């Protein structure tokens, strides 16, 4: 699949493999720092980024059946969606839905339709897999992300905290029914 987003040349979407891990790690770290460290980078945030976004961590996710859909313009990684079937979602009613673990877009590419294209591809993946819908968590203070998901048809269905180094960060659990479940809603 290709999409037209502002800029020179088309954007290609494809599944990631082991050779893509370094680019995934660096882009994920860049987006994490841009999103969560606006007031400066604390030591605990640096340690979390280095641990959560290392090549080893992303390699483990690939081994655990995470699927990474990459958005590329030529050899340039612009964003990615990370989906996984989670056996125990934070809201029990979401059992059977596919999780969108991450949707990260390079800050320079945000607000150009790339995030929505990746989100729709994740939804298509959920439908093909027979999942009841797609769910995700978004940091409660990331008002842009929450507005983006709400505009894309996602409902806030609960809370889930992201915890590292004894600090809890409130996340909102967002869900959209897909396929037969969406048609009956």
Features:
6 helices; 185 residues; alpha+beta; 8 strands; Aminopeptidase; eight-stranded mixed beta sheet
Structural topology:
Blueprint: E1 2-3, E2 11-15, H1 21-36, H2 43-52, H3 55-63, E3 67-73, E4 76-84, E5 98-105, H4 114-128, E6 133-139, H5 143-151, E7 155-164, E8 167-177, H6 179-184
Parallel strand pairs: 5-6
Antiparallel strand pairs: 1-2, 2-3, 3-4, 4-5, 6-8, 7-8
Helix pairs in contact: 1-2
3D architecture notes:
There is one protein chain. This protein is an alpha+beta fold and 185 residues long. The protein has one domain: Aminopeptidase (3-Layer(aba) Sandwich). Helix content is 35%, strand content 32%. The chain has helices spanning 21-36, 43-52, 55-63, 114-128, 143-151, 179-184; strands spanning 2-3, 11-15, 67-73, 76-84, 98-105, 133-139, 155-164, 167-177. Strands 1-2-3-4-5-6-8-7 form an eight-stranded mixed beta sheet. The chain starts with a strand and ends with a helix. The relative contact order is 0.15.
What's a concise summary of this model?
The protein is of the alpha+beta class. It has helices spanning 21-36, 43-52, 55-63, 114-128, 143-151, 179-184; strands spanning 2-3, 11-15, 67-73, 76-84, 98-105, 133-139, 155-164, 167-177.
């Amino acid at each position: 699949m290709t999409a037209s987003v502002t800029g020179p040349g088309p954007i290609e979407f494809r599944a990631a493999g082991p050779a893509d891990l370094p680019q995934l790690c660096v882009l994920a770290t860049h987006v994490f720092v841009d999103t969560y460290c606006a007031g400066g980078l604390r030591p605990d945030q640096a340690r979390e980024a280095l641990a959560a976004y290392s090549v080893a961590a992303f390699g483990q996710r690939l081994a655990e059946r995470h699927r990474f859909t990459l958005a590329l313009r030529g050899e340039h990684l612009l964003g990615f969606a990370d989906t996984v079937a989670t056996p125990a979602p934070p809201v029990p009613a979401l059992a059977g839905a596919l999780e969108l673990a991450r949707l990260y877009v390079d800050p320079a590419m945000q607000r150009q339709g790339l995030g929505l294209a990746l989100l729709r591809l994740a939804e298509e993946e959920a439908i093909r897999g027979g999942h009841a819908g797609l769910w995700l968590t978004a940091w409660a203070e990331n008002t842009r992300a929450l507005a983006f998901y709400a505009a894309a048809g996602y409902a806030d269905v609960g809370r889930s905290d992201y915890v590292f180094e004894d600090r809890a960060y409130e996340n909102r659990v967002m869900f959209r029914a897909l396929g037969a479940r969406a048609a009956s809603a």
